[in-house]
């Protein structure tokens, strides 16, 4: 008798940040995640990534829900990250307990000065890496400055993290197996001065909490996956299959910005465009004039 493996139950998600209005690039991304789940009877989840409390606005969250419904996208569950700060705090505590997180007292200005003064500042995917100024502070100084109320963020000590986990890799549906590159993001922020959890920490905790099996998202965050995989290993969380997709760009090859007037889903809706027809056009790769997938 041949053994037939049960098909995998796919769980995908769309995870926008409500810092602006969604444009057709977001619509296309949401459709990718939605359709992948729907085609196989899987689960499609929505997650509002509003941990950046200074930039996120409730009206943008409301608009996201309207935009998606208009495109005919329904979701099987909704998670709002701003309700989950205790979960991120618990993850940060676990990392502190492993000795792989450290407080960083540097301001942006401090970091810029440090980088300007160094002869060869290593660069990662998003620009120069944090030069590690606070990594070597002794425990007494750290404790004293925290007790004094000095503003600080918390960073991952990437070197210490990988020394603990050993070499890691992750899988992308297109790129295949990708070994973790510690230099992609360096000592990334886990918790900001004014931000209760960074995107990196929250995304990892919540992909696990929502049981996401397939992380469908843009290539713009490809490099972040090195950090995400490292955090998953440290926190003992499952690793989704990553499906980084092409980006919707303008004629100059630039990604559409959240303020893209005329291409914002809300503008198209207001102009009387039929959302279901637009969704089918995007599915078929029919983009408005001057817009491409790259
Ligand atoms: N909130 C992130 C963004 O809008 C989500 C990226 C991801 O799907 O992990 O880019």
From TrEMBL:
Keywords from the UniProt entry: Aminoacyl-tRNA synthetase, ATP-binding, Ligase, Metal-binding, Nucleotide-binding, Protein biosynthesis, Zinc
KW Amino-acid biosynthesis (keyword) present: no
A Pfam family of this chain: tRNA-synt_1c
GO MF assignments: ligase activity
Enzyme Commission code: 6.1.1.-
InterPro entries per record: aa-tRNA-synth_I_CS, Glu/Gln-tRNA-synth, Glu/Gln-tRNA-synth_Ib_cat-dom, GluQ/Sye, Rossmann-like_a/b/a_fold
Glutamyl/glutaminyl-tRNA synthetase class Ib catalytic domain sequence ranges: 10-264
Family: Belongs to the class-I aminoacyl-tRNA synthetase family.
The protein's name in its UniProt record: Glutamyl-Q tRNA(Asp) synthetase
Upper taxonomic lineage: Bacteria, Pseudomonadati, Pseudomonadota, Alphaproteobacteria, Sphingomonadales
């Amino acid at each position: 008798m041949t053994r037939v493996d049960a098909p995998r139950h796919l769980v995908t998600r769309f995870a926008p940040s409500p810092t602006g209005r969604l444009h057709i690039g977001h619509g296309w991304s949401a459709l990718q995640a939605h359709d992948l789940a729907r085609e196989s009877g899987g689960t499609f989840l929505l997650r509002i990534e509003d941990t950046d409390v200074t930039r996120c606005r409730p009206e943008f969250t409301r608009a996201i829900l309207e935009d998606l419904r208009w495109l005919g996208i329904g979701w099987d569950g909704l998670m709002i990250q701003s309700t989950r700060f205790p979960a991120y705090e618990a993850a940060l505590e676990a990392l502190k307990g492993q000795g792989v997180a450290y407080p960083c007292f540097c301001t942006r200005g401090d970091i810029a000065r440090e980088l300007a003064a160094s002869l060869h500042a290593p660069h990662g995917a998003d620009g120069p890496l944090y030069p590690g100024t606070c990594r070597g502070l002794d425990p007494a100084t750290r404790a004293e400055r925290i007790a004094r109320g000095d503003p600080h963020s918390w960073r991952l000590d990437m070197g210490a993290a990988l020394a603990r986990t050993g070499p890691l890799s992750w899988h992308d549906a297109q790129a295949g197996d990708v070994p973790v590159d510690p230099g992609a993001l360096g000592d990334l922020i886990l918790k900001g001065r004014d931000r209760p959890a960074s995107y990196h920490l929250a995304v990892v905790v919540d992909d696990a909490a929502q049981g996401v099996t397939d992380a469908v998202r843009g290539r713009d965050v490809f490099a972040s996956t090195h950090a995400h995989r490292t955090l998953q290993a440290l926190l003992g969380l499952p690793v989704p299959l990553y499906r980084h997709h092409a980006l919707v760009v303008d004629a100059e090859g630039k990604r559409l910005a959240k303020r893209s007037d005329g291409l914002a889903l809300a503008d198209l809706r207001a102009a009387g465009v039929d959302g279901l027809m637009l969704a089918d056009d995007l599915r078929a790769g029919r983009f408005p004039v001057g817009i491409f997938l790259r």
